[in-house]
Amino acid sequence: MVASDGGAQAVARLADALNRKGAKWDYTISNPTSSSVYKTERYAFIWKTSKLTKFGDAWLEKKYHLEIDREPFFANFKTKEGKSFTVAAFHAITKSMQPETEIMYFKFMPEEYPDKNLIFVGDFNCPQSHTVFNSLKTMGYKSVITGQNTSLKQACVADDCLASEFDNIFYNSNKVKFIRSGVIHFYKSFSSLDEADDISDHIPVWFEFSVN
């Protein structure tokens, strides 16, 4: 997720910096979401072109844009082996506003896009153990991490600096082979959580996989 125009410019600078290191990277940025509660946001995807090709136009979810405050952003990708998958990035409303009232609509998306191999990624503000994910799990979807907090606390308690299990990736285990996954504790490279928070108040989740 990126903030308005400033965030979009930051993504462009990041892609430029990566390109200057030798490999070719590309990116796509969404239009602003149709948020009614928060300021609108934009989503971004960035990928190494030697590994992936984006095909077709990326799009913000239209059918449930009234039910989901910051509607998901979809993009189709194809591996060099010709296997395709579609990533849907999402930022839910806060926990106090009951994000499950938005997440409940994700169970309809595999039927809405029956020809897509959907992978849902983002900040759900809700743990993967919540019953709202049961419908997706029944369809064969699995989370890449379990019991892993991903949001930063206001201050570390001993060595515990993470607060809540909010960020995750959900993949269809019938179509995708799990290889490995994890998180990046980037805040450990900073002298304080306040400095780290200037970058993000969540840690990244990563997922290595192959498409069946």
Q: Percent of residues in beta strands?
A: 25-35%
Could you tell me the CATH topology label.
Deoxyribonuclease I, Chain A
Low-confidence regions: none
Average pLDDT level: 95
Write the CATH homologous superfamily.
Endonuclease/exonuclease/phosphatase
* CA-based gyration radius: 17 Å
Can you characterise this structure?
16% of the residues lie in helices and 33% in strands. The chain is an alpha+beta fold and 212 residues long. It has a single domain, classed as Endonuclease/exonuclease/phosphatase (Deoxyribonuclease I, Chain A, 4-Layer Sandwich), CATH 3.60.10. Strands 3, 4, 5, 6, 7, 8 and 11 form a 7-stranded mixed β-sheet that branches. A hairpin with a 4-residue loop joins strand 5 and strand 6. The two termini are 28 Å apart.
Topology:
Elements: H1 4-19, E1 25-29, E2 44-48, E3 52-54, E4 59-60, E5 73-79, E6 84-91, H2 100-103, H3 109-112, E7 118-123, H4 134-138, E8 141-143, E9 152-157, E10 160-162, E11 167-172, E12 176-183, H5 193-197, E13 205-211
Structural key phrases:
16% helix; two-stranded antiparallel sheet; 5 helices; seven-stranded mixed sheet; Deoxyribonuclease I, Chain A; 212 residues; alpha+beta
Quick structural gist:
By secondary structure, this protein is an alpha+beta fold.
